[in-house]
Design a protein that fits this description.
Blueprint (H helix, E strand, L loop, with lengths): L3 E7 L3 H16 L2 E3 L8 E6 L4 H20 L4 E5 H14 L5 E3 L7 H9 L4 E3 L22 E5 L1 E2 L10 H5 L3 E2 L2 H13 L4 E5 L16 H9 L6 E5 L8 H9 L6 E3 L7 H6 L6 H14 L4 E8 L6 H14 L3 E6 L17 H25 L4 E9 L7 E5 L4 E5 L8 E9 L4 E7 L1
Parallel strand pairs: 1-2, 1-3, 3-4, 4-5, 5-6, 7-10, 10-11, 12-13, 13-14, 17-19
Antiparallel strand pairs: 8-9, 15-16, 15-18, 16-17, 18-19
Bound molecules: S-adenosyl-L-homocysteine, iron/sulfur cluster (SF4) and FE3-S4 cluster.
């Protein structure tokens, strides 16, 4: 079989990254090798994100750019996958004659068949969101970006229906992978030299809730902690309403679980949190932060914030700023509210004007910038464990890795290879990373 090439452009969250890695595995079996040059590809794929309007618009501008390659060589196939595909599949096929197939978020395994059809001149669409979909059918085939740290999906879909969010509509109902299958995948990864795993899902704390034979999330953490060779466990995302005492206790007692947690709060105002259908109050959230800080000294907390949610007053926004100060986050991601078709928040009155939302976004980012820099500078002079991921792209001869608190470190000194755990003395705290030198290896 002649090797063909695929150019895959990926957008969105870590779930999309994991889907892309799985898809590359499936395509490898079908005779494709990946290329980062679209001009030489036989197959062009866009794995899309629908979370905000801007992300969605990007699909159409990218298609406009990439279909030029098909115009030059009609043998080139174009496929659109992922969350925009799920939401707008029919529209994409109707609007873009250059697109040969569209597969939604549970369509990875269908892609080889869709390619065959496209070669025979048939355009196709796969949008099923059936619960019984079995992601395990391509376990361990993934072609992963990193050889050191692996993404491992544990739960697909989302049942939370936060009022602003499109994910439950494009990813379907929650579906937990069997614990035995996850364990086997993690064992194999550790056997191949992976040192770190990040368990992923829209709400990892819901893991196993729907099926009796499965472990719950805490049980899964205990199970994976036993895997020999594995050094670090992370997970993302945790919904604050479901972060239990037992998970906090597991984080405190199981040494492989890193001292870092992404806990999206979205807003500091109870009224806004209620309208967002988040299921917790400001004080519930801050209590959990306090519990985490007590149980896990040095834990790095990160969050997501939405500004300009409908009806967000200046007073509501001030509460968000004060929560950011109180929780003392290490880092955050902030977004301007973007109304999404079909969600409850799309119909809410009292939109916040663009200028106000823009000002609030800047204020959140400014405040966090100060906090992050202060935290990074406080680490100067300390020695931290770093997992070496690869070369520092900016300075030749230097390395890049992450601390257990998930901070990026650029460092020199010592003889290391990716996958090593080294002790690094921090010399500088910068806005987005730390720099230092190896003290032992
Ligand atoms: N399941 C995760 C991640 C969801 S998407 C969670 O519950 O946290 C990542 C982030 O995008 C969200 O945390 C939220 O801050 C942001 N987001 C989601 N929908 C949005 C919208 N309509 N407008 C602006 N930001 C949004
Ligand atoms: Fe969206 Fe809420 Fe589900 Fe996260 S928990 S994916 S924000 S609906
Ligand atoms: Fe985007 Fe889909 Fe993830 S909408 S954030 S790629 S689940």
């Amino acid at each position: 079989m002649k090797t063909k090439t695929v150019y895959l452009k990926n957008f969105g969250c870590q779930m999309n990254n994991a889907d892309a890695e799985q898809l590359l595995g499936v395509l490898h079996r079908a005779g494709y090798r990946a290329t980062d040059r679209p001009e030489e590809a036989d197959l062009i794929l866009l794995n899309t994100c629908a979370i905000r309007e801007k992300a969605e618009q990007k699909v159409f501008s990218d298609l406009g750019r990439l279909k030029v390659f098909k115009a030059k060589d009609p043998g080139v196939l174009i496929g659109v996958l992922g969350c925009v595909a799920q939401a707008e599949g029919k529209k994409i096929l109707a609007r873009e004659p250059a697109v040969d197939f569209v597969a939604g978020t549970r369509g990875t395994a269908e892609v080889p068949e869709m390619i065959r059809k496209a070669r025979a001149g048939e355009r196709s669409l796969f949008l099923s969101l059936e619960d019984e979909f079995d992601p395990g059918r391509f376990r361990n085939e993934s072609i992963r970006e990193s050889r050191v740290a692996a993404l491992v999906p544990i739960i697909y879909g989302c049942d939370n229906f936060c009022s602003y969010c499109v994910v439950p509509y494009v990813r379907g109902r929650e579906w937990s992978r069997p614990a035995a299958e996850i364990l086997q995948e993690v064992r194999e990864l550790a056997g191949r030299g992976y040192k770190e795993i990040t368990l992923i899902g829209q709400n990892v704390n819901s893991y196993g809730k729907k099926s009796k034979e499965n472990e719950d999330f805490c049980g899964l953490l205990h199970l994976l902690h036993e895997v020999n060779g594995l050094e670090r466990i992370r997970f993302v995302t945790s919904h604050p309403k479901d972060l239990s005492r037992s998970v906090i206790a597991a984080m405190a007692s199981l040494h492989k679980i890193c001292e870092a947690l992404h806990l999206p709060v979205q807003s500091g105002s109870d009224r806004v949190l209620r309208d967002m259908n988040r299921g917790y109050s400001r004080s519930d959230y801050l209590k959990k932060v306090e519990r985490l800080r007590e149980a896990i000294p040095g834990i790095a907390l990160t969050t997501d914030i939405i500004v300009g949610f409908p009806g967000e007053s200046e007073a509501d926004f001030e509460e968000t700023l004060s929560l950011i100060r109180e929780a003392d986050f290490d880092r955050l991601f902030a977004f301007r509210f973007s109304p999404r078709a079909g969600t409850a928040a799309e119909k809410l009155p009292d939109p916040v004007d663009e200028e106000t939302a823009g000002r609030r976004l800047a204020a959140v980012l400014d405040l966090q910038k100060e906090q992050t820099l202060r935290k990074h500078q406080a680490l100067v002079g300390t020695t931290v464990e770093v997992l070496v991921e690869g070369a520092n792209p900016k300075v030749s001869g230097e390395w890049m890795g992450r601390t257990r608190a998930n901070k990026i470190v650029h460092f020199g000194g010592g003889r290391t290879v990716p996958g090593d755990l080294v002790d690094v003395r921090i010399e500088k705290g910068l806005p987005n990373c730390l720099t230092g030198r190896v003290v032992s290896s």
